[in-house]
Design goal:
This protein has 506 residues and is of the alpha+beta class. It is built from 17 helices and 12 strands. The protein has a 5-stranded antiparallel β-sheet, sandwiched between helices. Strands 6-7-9-10-8 form a 5-stranded antiparallel β-sheet, sandwiched between helices. A hairpin with a 5-residue loop joins strand 9 and strand 10. The longest helix is centred in the middle third of the chain and has 30 residues. It starts with 14 loop residues before the first helix and ends in a 37-residue tail after the last helix. This is Spore germination protein.
């Protein structure tokens, strides 16, 4: 178990002692602002402490300092009341801030200062008032770059937790939407919020999520990926067991299905659990289009997933082991294009696949226009040059191009990356055993996926356990009309199963 960074520091009645202790803990922190002042004719001593840049200074100036230093003069309480109840008078009558709270240790006060709040110290009182005054710069709401849609909301999560919870609350105007806050990270103390709908989400699922989050023992949480890796069931698997998204509408839809969302401060990516391979291959846009169009797109997406996973391996197996499976004219053409290529098909495929991955990575790390140019021009130039140099065959360039295009149709980046990783393994099996090797690799992958779980939910739902999740097939490979999907997905074992009801049930 990790040891605590510091012992609890008690609050003294002397304001100078408290300020001295705070300055010792925050030594060499030049962005900390200390402001001491007096109030009233009796000159009661006060002090505020905040971080410059994290706090709304106008709010503190207008609604704390001005209220205490000027407007307090207009009050005429009994002198004995002021002397005996100064702290309560200040907290309840002189600070025009909507959110106040108290702490009883300097450790808690310092943590709040570093989180962007302002602390107010009152002389001769062993409590500190926390003034809600967070005011750091916030990025504007823009459309998510990784999950663009033609039809659907254009707002996306930002790096501020409060804004993100507001975006979800705006879509779920239900008193049963619960938001539980906690902090993770011994040093970073990152704010984390767990969201669920109380009478829909299964309590065991919610308790399991909170349990796994509280079990995290780490110094720093800078992004949701850290938490994702700590709470997933099988960290050795190439397939993600936690969904991440930048779209508030996707999070709201998941909550309505009885799933649990995790929002983390300082990142625009939310985590959603549990997850299945079916949900990872779905897009938010599927639910905004008519069922015929959505079903057609989903079928194309599943076909593209198979192409992205198997096409290079099938080419390797057919050219190396089973050329007789091809029509005569096509077999002769493939043999002619490979004439003069010095490498076997597996080496040829690896050369092109690695080249495409390098271009993909380079395009992602560069700015938008430059990255697009690198991807297009690089692919054309390198592919043409490789063919003319006799390093690869024209057919292999076509195969790799189709594979790359197909991989971009997968909505989730994480599952697409898992397919890309597995694809290399299948290519090796196909080079060793041909089509038998592909079948063996698919068998191994299938066994792994069937055994894989996400927070107790089978990863292959609803394609397994038909007795429990057969109705979920209405929203799997194809999407049935919304009028027929009267029940929520069963894989989460929700409490409130009805999604569409009659007027008499309302």
């Amino acid at each position: 178990m990790l040891r605590e960074r510091e012992n609890s520091i008690s609050i003294s009645k002397d304001i100078n002692t408290n300020l001295k202790k705070i300055k010792e803990v925050l030594k060499d922190c030049d962005d900390i602002v200390y402001r001491e002042f007096t109030v009233g004719e009796r000159r009661f001593k006060f002090a505020i402490v905040y971080v410059d840049g994290l706090t709304d200074k106008i709010l503190v100036s207008d609604y704390v300092l001005e209220s205490l230093m000027h407007q307090a003069r207009g009050l005429e309480p009994n002198p004995n009341s002021v002397k005996n109840n100064l702290y309560e008078l200040v907290k309840n009558r002189n600070i025009a801030i909507t959110e106040l709270k108290e702490v009883e240790t300097l450790n808690e006060a310092i943590d709040n200062v570093l989180a962007g709040e302002t602390i107010l110290l009152v002389n001769r009182y062993q409590k500190i008032i926390i003034v809600s005054s967070r005011g750091w710069p916030v990025r504007g709401l823009n459309e998510p770059q990784t999950e663009t849609v033609i039809r659907g909301p254009r707002d996306g999560f930002v790096e501020t937790l409060k804004v993100n919870t507001t975006l979800v609350r705006r879509r779920i105007r239900d008193s049963k939407l619960k938001i539980k806050n906690m902090q993770i990270g011994r040093r970073s103390k990152t704010d984390v919020a767990v969201l669920y709908i109380e009478d829909v989400a299964n309590k065991e699922l919610v308790d399991e999520v909170i349990k796994r989050l509280k079990a995290i023992r780490v110094d720093v949480v800078l992004e949701s990926g850290t938490i994702e890796q700590f709470i997933e069931d099988n960290w050795m698997s190439p397939f993600p067991q936690v969904e991440n998204t930048e779209r508030p509408d996707a999070v709201a839809a998941a909550l309505y299905e009885g799933r649990v969302a995790i929002l983390i401060d300082n990142t625009p990516f939310a985590l959603v659990v549990p997850v299945t391979i079916s949900t990872l291959l779905q897009s938010s846009e599927d639910y905004y289009e008519r069922w015929i169009i959505a079903s057609l797109i989903r079928v194309l997406r599943y076909i593209a997933s198979l192409i992205a996973l198997l096409l290079p391996s099938i080419y390797i197996a057919v050219t190396a082991y089973h050329p007789g499976m091809l029509p005569t004219q096509l077999a002769l053409y493939v043999a002619a294009t490979r004439e003069g290529v010095p490498f076997p098909a597996i080496i040829e495929a690896f050369i092109m696949e690695v080249t495409i991955e390098l271009l993909r990575e380079a395009g992602m790390r560069l700015s938008g226009p430059i990255g697009t140019t690198i991807g297009i021009v690089g692919g054309l130039v390198i592919g043409q040059a490789a063919v003319e140099a006799g390093i690869v065959s024209p057919m292999m360039v076509i195969i790799v191009a189709l594979t790359t295009i197909a991989s971009f149709t997968i909505p989730s980046y994480n599952i697409a990356a898992g397919f890309r990783f597995v694809r290399f393994g299948i290519m090796i099996f196909s080079a060793l055993l041909g089509l038998y090797g592909i079948m063996l690799a698919l068998l191994i992958i299938g066994i792994h996926l069937v055994r894989l779980e996400s927070f107790g939910v089978p990863y292959m739902s609803p394609y397994v356990s038909f007795s429990e999740t057969y109705s979920d097939l209405k929203d799997s490979v194809v999407k049935m009309p919304i009028q027929t999907m009267k029940k929520r997905p069963r894989f989460t074992n929700v409490y409130d199963k009805d999604r569409i009801f009659s007027d008499s049930e309302e």
